[in-house]
Amino acid sequence: MSEKMGILGRKLGMTRIFAGDGSAVSVTVIKAGPCPITQVKTAEKDGYHALQIAFDEAKEKHVSKAMQGHFAKANAGNYRTVRELRLENAAAQQVGEVLTIDMFGVGDKIKVTGTSVGKGYQGVMRRWNFAGIKDGHGNEKVHRNAGSIGNNTFPGHVFKGKKMAGHWGNEQVTEQGLTIVEVRQEEGVILVKGSVPGPKNGLVFVRKQ
């Protein structure tokens, strides 16, 4: 398989294991796969090369009729989630093949995409690390304010991208350069050293770098 293969999984949480020298290593446990290939896309037919993979088996009543028919073509059962994996050699794979954690090995470098933990509505000090306003006697109830956001008459508006208070987190994040510490085939989990985005039980997309 290609070096750029990937797989879907769920972040189960964190634990620690002990290395051969006795040192404790913090790791994130990811339950990954199995992910059947439900469609192979090619440049001739779809305009690009990609594999569509499915994850997380579901009851028939929880899957739309359209997706039930789509999964039936692959003879793969019903699933909650599908994602695309861009691959130049996608045509070398077959619909119905199942991707598992066999593709990974100890020491492999991976990148993990997930939805970061949502922090809700936050002010500028927490969201952007603003220093705040001086706490002198002349300042009243403005210590955590953002300060001025305006400009002169020209251009007369707030620039797009201005750092202000607002919703923080709950967005797609990709962490690169993570290391696989252990692959447990019998349990279907991989142990990853590094910062894996998302909450417990959050969906993650694990790919080789």
TrEMBL record:
Xref: Gene3D superfamilies: 3.30.160.810, Translation factors
Pfam families associated with the record: Ribosomal_L3
Transmembrane feature ranges: none
UniProt GO cellular component terms: ribosome
Family per record: Belongs to the universal ribosomal protein uL3 family.
Subunit structure: Part of the 50S ribosomal subunit. Forms a cluster with proteins L14 and L19.
Protein name in the entry: Large ribosomal subunit protein uL3
Gene that specifies this protein: rplC
